[in-house]
Amino acid sequence: MLEAVVFYTLATFILGLGILVITARTPVHSVLFLVLNFLLVAVLYVTLGAQYVAVIQVLVYAGGVVVLYLFVVMLVSLKRAPEEHGDNRRLGVLGALLGGAVLAELIAIIFASRRNTNTVVNATSDMPARLSDPMLNTEQLGWLLYTEYLIPFELASMLLLVAMIGAIVLAKKNI
Amino acid sequence: MLSAGLFMIGVIGVLVRRNIIIIFMSIELILNAVNINLIAYSSQVQNLIGQVFVVFVIAVAAAEAAVGLGIIIAFYRNKETINIDEMSLMRW
Questions:
Q1: Does A100 touch chain B (CB under 8 A)?
Q2: Is the pTM of this model over 0.80?
């Protein structure tokens, strides 16, 4: 019962903050609502038993990515917002219609796939997958990342290296 | 259902707004919606593969945000605009 109440309040806040992100006037307000959104999503992860991913979300997303966005917003600060010329209301209606179509399609997919039962491939080879043990979640995830998913792990690190080089090259003065 | 709703909000944000930084933030919202979905399924099926995938999705999203913002800064240095309607260099 308590879990349902917590989930529904978190869900309403996450969705409300999401709507505020895309409808805020200034980019700085959008970034602030995005930070709150990420923090609430991290709380949601904790209630679902994924403590390591929640910590990673707070560190990487709410700590790194949002700070990056704030820097760029400050660098590109405008005198006049780009939404002031052009008809906003028609664009808004069109966007809402398209978004409603996407949502209807997603719900249709959810209901259609609920009829078929999928077989689940167990990812762990030699250890029990107990998710909600708070001291062992990180350890289990570490086991998996280093034994079965080692190649994606190394590829991800190489991807981060390439992205770092690309970002530095893109932001140089004399390119 | 929550992740579908958040996905829809992100898609609307990408389609409607004209400020390119807010478009990028809506893309981050979409990625977060996918992460919520993966974690929910991982908790339902009691299998840790969802969380492994979420770690990789977060890494890819951070890398993409960095490179995308670098592109925005490089573009702004040349064209002095962040209105996406005016970024039409490659149009015919």
A1: yes
A2: no
Cα B30 to Cα B46: distance, rounded to the nearest angstrom: 24
Task: List, for residues B11-27, the tens digit of each pLDDT value.
Answer: 777 777 778 888 888 88
A52 shares contact with chain B (CB less than 8 Å):
yes
Residue B66 with chain A: CB contacts under 8 Å: 68, 163-164, 167
Residue A89 inside a domain? The answer is no
B79 touches chain A (CB under 8 A): no
| A68 at interface of B, judged by CB pairs closer than 8 A | yes
A59: its two tokens? 């560190």
- Sequence ranges of the domains in chain B: 2-86
Query: How many independent structural domains does chain A possess?
Result: 2
Kindly state the tokens that stand for A63.
């700590």
Please name the member of A21, A30, A102 whose beta carbon is closest to the beta carbon of B11: A102
Contact B7 A92 (CB under 8 A): no
**Dihedral sign, Cα of residue A91, residue A94, residue A98, residue A99:** positive
Q: Å from B27 to nearest chain A CA?
A: 11
- The C-alpha atoms of residue B15 and residue B46 are separated, in whole angstroms, by 36
ipTM of this complex prediction, to 2 decimal places: 0.83
Q: What is the pLDDT of residues A43-95, one digit of tens each?
A: 888 888 788 888 888 888 888 888 888 888 888 776 555 555 555 666 677 77
Q: Which CATH class is domain B2-86?
A: mainly alpha
Tokens 């339902």 identify what position?
A: B44
Taking an 8 Å cut-off on Cβ atoms, the answer to whether B35 and A41 are in contact is yes
